[in-house]
Amino acid sequence: MKTWSEVGEIQPLASKIITNSIKKDRISHAYLLHGARGTGKEAIAVLLAKVLFCTNRSGVDPCLECNACRRIESGNHPDVHFLEPDGQSIKKEQIEHLQKEFAYSGMESSQKVYIIKGADTLTVNAANRILKFLEEPSRKTTAIMMTENSQSIIPTIRSRCQIIDLQPLNPKAFQQKLMDSGIQRQSAILLSAMTNNLDDAIALNGDEWFAQARKLMIQLVEMVSKKPDEVFLFIHNQWMPHFKDRDQHEQGLDLLLLAFKDILYFHIGKEEAMVTLDKDDEKAESFGMVFSQERLLRILHTLLDAKRKIKQNVNPTLVMEQLTVQIQR
């Protein structure tokens, strides 16, 4: 997305709010862009930074051709600072380094922009340190924070930002884009449930690791329904060797969430919402006979709790062992 018109095609409200601020010369000192992955957070942040630095801006859009625009696009502008999680979180030391930059005037202008990715991962100490900047805003300093979970950000930070809520992309339109890219319909439906990012979805579709992950997901559900005594061994012998890092573990849990949701949808007659199972697949009916609605709701709650623990850096093996015990009850 290179212009606010392009932003407006998928995020009309966000585009209207920000362009109105640009027209009135009332750009906020701090924004919090909240939305799922693929909803355009980073593109909006970079576009806003270009607006602030562009030397040939016409109206609300940057020219995209001047030295400042090109350097921001490449991530090499000395007065535009990107900050992202170091591992699982944004740490106090990263904010201390950023605060040192606050003390200096801009290298090429008096304007500074800080773009903070994954703002919900700020540690408590880091969050408290960033408050100093937000409580004492400089007219020439703009912070743009991005998050998929604004409720995980402390209220004192949220209250000092203009919050821009980005809407989920239309799943049907996204699925059609995937099918136009040559992806089969059922795979497009599943991929649209996994990500809103077109490039990520296309990459997953051609990824042998992800194809095997889908197979393991179905096998695990079958194990739970038909051979519960063997689930623990399956987790250790097949699941854990395949899902190695935390991102992969999250994807595995996402697949399981979708699978058990599908069985629940089958129960309540919402087969059109199913993404991992086909409504005419015999598996859907057999799973529906094994799992009651009450048990499915309990399993879904357990899976969400497992995802939360993975995000909190709990040992993945321990998380999966506990999950195995809980879903067999």
Can you walk through the features of this model?
The protein has 329 residues and is an alpha/beta fold. The chain folds into two domains: 4-165, P-loop containing nucleotide triphosphate hydrolases (Rossmann fold, 3-Layer(aba) Sandwich), CATH 3.40.50.300; 207-327, Zinc Finger, Delta Prime, domain 3. Helix content is 57%, strand content 8%. It has helices spanning 4-10, 12-23, 41-53, 67-74, 92-102, 124-135, 155-158, 171-180, 185-194, 198-205, 208-226, 231-242, 246-267, 282-290, 293-311, 316-327, and strands at residues 30-34, 80-83, 112-116, 141-147, 162-165. Helix 3 (41-53) runs antiparallel to helix 4. The termini are far apart. One of its GO terms (molecular function) is DNA-directed DNA polymerase activity. Its EC number is 2.7.7.7. It comes from Virgibacillus kekensis. Residues 240-327 form the DNA polymerase III delta subunit C-terminal domain.
Structure, briefly:
This protein is α/β, with parallel strands linked by helices and 329 residues long. The chain has helices spanning 4-10, 12-23, 41-53, 67-74, 92-102, 124-135, 155-158, 171-180, 185-194, 198-205, 208-226, 231-242, 246-267, 282-290, 293-311, 316-327; strands spanning 30-34, 80-83, 112-116, 141-147, 162-165. The protein has a five-stranded parallel beta sheet, with helices on both faces.
